[in-house]
Amino acid sequence: MHPLNKLPLSALRAVEAIGRLGTLAAAADELGVTSGALSQRLAKAEARLGVPLFLREATGLRATEACERILPRLSLGMEHLASALELLEDDETTLTVTVAPIFASRWLIWRIHRFHELEPTISVRVEPRVDMVDFRNSEVDVGIRVGTSPGRHVSASKLLDQRVFPVCSPEIALRVHKPEDLLKLPIIRENDDLFGWKTWLANTGLSVPPAVPGPTYADASLCLDAAMTGQGVFMAWETLASDAIKAGQLVAPVPGRCETGQSYWFVAHPRSAKKSKTVKFRRWLEAELMQSVIEWRSGGD
Q1: How far is residue 279's CA from residue 284's CA, in Å, rounded to a whole number?
Q2: SS3 214
Q3: What is the distance between the alpha carbons of residues 118 and 183, in angstroms, rounded to a whole number?
């Protein structure tokens, strides 16, 4: 019997996904099946092969030694299968982009029409999501990520270094004459996090006091909205707040913008990076960000 006749492709996909992701729930979500169905596939695969592939632990599934030996080749095989299908379905008319929801809503959505005007034959599908897509097992073409590195198994280019600065409503700004005045106002937090404040204040010779009043929201977009409505001061990213400043909804009450050590990255699977639609979108994105930077920093910050 040919070795591939021992197991259906669905079982091999199940083993590979579970081994790579570590839990039934994550693998089931990626493959679009229930955890129960995936568990049955795994049980049948182990029964057919006659060896245990995973150890059931409280934190999830851990690959056995036998499974660890085959997982790299299984993953490589799935990549080759995906590449083969792409040769038949190489669609240069649709580009799927994954990006953080706040970047999509505060910057990208206001400019994407210009790409459509420039490349009317390419339809861009934007997928706002906070998790990091594994391009090896996804239909997503490209992504825009924020972090100290772009991640693994991707073709990446740096778009922009992230900078932050305090913003507030025009009414609140009337109470701010120097950096020290910011600490007399409520500070708007994202998930109790004072992201960027320590670094920004350190650049001005100040530090975050032990207890600072202010509201907390679970989303940076809500934090920006809270700042617009006069609820306090928020340490915002340039890409997210600068359009609101241009529209007069927010004000930067004191000068100075501080790098966070993180950057924006354009990422794609290596086999997708050189496709015409990918290259065209990347070049457009770079040009748009360059224009935005010129506008943001024209005041000398």
Answers
A1: 9
A2: coil
A3: 46
Which residues 6+ apart lie within 8 Å of 186 measured at CB? 212, 213, 214, 215, 231, 232, 233
Angle separating helix axes 238-246 and 220-228, nearest 10 degrees: 30
245/175 Cα distance (integer angstroms): 17
pLDDT, tens digit, for every residue of 192-246?
788 889 899 998 889 888 888 999 999 899 999 999 999 999 999 999 999 999 9
Structure tokens at 32: 């679009």
Calpha distance 92→69 (Å, rounded)? 37
pTM of model > 0.85:
no
The listed CATH number (2.60.34.10, 3.40.50.360, 1.10.620.20, 1.10.10.10) that belongs to domain 3-88: 1.10.10.10
**What are the tokens at 115?**
């790409």
Where is average pLDDT lowest: 5-9, 119-123, 248-252, 271-275?
5-9
Considering just the CA atoms, what is the radius of gyration of the chain in Å?
24
- Taking CA atoms, 198 is separated from 103, 115, 148, 176, 301, in Å, by 23, 37, 18, 19, 19
Q: Which of 3.40.190.10, 1.20.1110.10, 3.40.50.970, 3.40.80.10 is the CATH number of 163-261? A: 3.40.190.10
Query: Which structure tokens are listed for 4?
Result: 């591939």
β-strand pairing of 216-217 with 189-190:
parallel
Cβ proximity of 162 and 146 under 8 Å: yes
How crowded is the C-beta side of 288, counted as CA atoms within 13 Å?
17
How far is Cα 298 from Cα 252, in angstroms, rounded to an integer? Answer: 14
- Contacts (Cβ under 8 Å, ≥6 apart) of 82: 136, 137
Closest CA to 264 of 133, 166, 151: 151
